[in-house]
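[INFO] parsing input record for BED-type domain-containing protein
[DEBUG] input buffer:
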Amino acid sequence: MSSSDSKNSRKDFVWKYVIEVSREQYIRCKFCNQRCTGGVNRLKHHLVGTHHGMKPCSKVSEDARLECKEALANFKDKKTKRNELLQEIGMGPTSMHESALSKTIGTLGSGSGSRSVSGSGEPIPRGPMDKFTTSQPRQSTLNSKWKQEERKEVCRKIGRFMYSKGLPFNTVNDPYWFPMIDVVANFEPGFKPPSMHELRAWILKEEVNDLSIIMEDHKKAWKQYGCSIMSDGWTDGKSRCLINFLVNSPTGTWFMKSIDASDTIKNGELMFKYLDEVVEEIGEENVVQVITDNASNYVNAGMRLMEKRSRLWWTPCAAHCIDLMLEDIGKLNVHATTLSQARQVVKFIYGHTWVLSLMRTFTKNLELIRPAITRFATAFLTLQSIYKQKQALIAMFSSEKWCSSTWAKKVEGVKTRSTVLFDPNFWPHVAFCIKTTVPLVSVLREVDSEERPAMGYIYELMDSAKEKIAFNCGGMERKYGPIWRKIDARWTPQLHRPLHAAGYYLNPQLRYGDKFSNVDEVRKGLFECMDRMLDYQERLKADIQLDSYDQAMGEFGSRIAIDSRTLRSPTSWWMRFGGSTPELQKFVIRVLSLTCSASGCERNWSTFESVILLFL
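[DEBUG] output buffer:
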């Protein structure tokens, strides 16, 4: 973006949604910190979500999105009218360059009989009939074909580089890919790429400085909204035991550090020390909760942390707890037997190339295996996929092609065919397993998603999942009872936390709904959170203000507040209508902005940012 372009476009309204990065030729989105190397028009496409070379903004406000959408529509309309006018006066898009060139070279004659000189030296006639005809100069067609061939050559060079380094194809989906290609394409011919020394010297230093600026924005969000510390252990390709520490807030997830714990014992004492250091680094006043998985060493560390730090909460990862629920359900007799049979079917089909090819001809290239967030979710979703292909599998094992193959006479093939065609319990049990687990898998997807903070929804999601399971079982307690008991065995002691109850109570989408469960355990959880997170004076004022929220009085009872309960996110609703209750508003926003899951910490942050921050 040139300096002149920048000065001219400062009048554009979209600059109020921009974070400028000094000394660099790019800007950043105010909502999601996305880097934009194009002009303000590209940023508008980013905010509206029409791609245009940039990943759509997931955090843009509705007002900003509509404002940019209207501006883009007006711009497109003006551009269309301008092109129509140019066509009418005999200056289409292709002839504009010719006109500019003719001014440079000069014109021959004047009036209606004048002739402009083209770049090829041939005169171009201009007359009154030109506006009723269209012309495609042969030179333009040749140029277009030459450009296509040139692009193919450039694409092959890029592909060759990626193949030689074994880069995955989804590299081109990285948000930094298109900005890189754009600046290289806009640079004058003869661009000299950076050397290895430049990449590890001044370029790295500049990126570290930029990320330090972005980190300051995250720190501001931690103070305003509070934050969650997420910790998760994993093993890398070199069998090193690594522990990641990340900080989550409405601004996004920020990688803090990664510790190599290979040479130490991951006991409660060690984990407490690590977590306490991270809390101290971020500031205890900014931390609302610490999320870990449910292993005994993390539980021990979490309890000790809550004893030392009187205002924060330790909560187990919701995704990990739900995965354990699925594991427990998978151990019930019907589920265990069915999963074992399904695994044998899948293992046989995918373990032999000819059988797999035959299966794909009957399923129209649809797969049986469905990878999911966790191992046990994958098992039950694969079960669902098998059931969807029931008729295709039956047709396959009944076909003449199968019966005439050598696999039909082998022990594995005979056993698999017998399961699919002749076992009277297999398909009914597959259907039963799906009905009793898929609602729980849906909750897992919800809490592990970064689309919205899940704290205000997890309580209702679990209740709704249990109701769906009971409904799927025809309301027969002997069928859904064992499933409920497995869920409650994990939910009550592990996942049913005061923060979850408070989030449920303070979510206006649920609090004012017909199905809201105003039971003692919900209010008790809310009051426990208020007692722990607020000092006495704040607690007293917030408790008085809570009555206005309960009874929908004042701003909470205005028509626009009532109509927007389901249209706005819970957090934005409180920011809009809770301004007259500052003590309660601050507490509520901190609760509703929280995430529920720390699973997959190694995939929730940008590889680029993590590599850069290791140099800080």
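[INFO] The first helix runs from residue 3 to 9.
[INFO] shutting down worker
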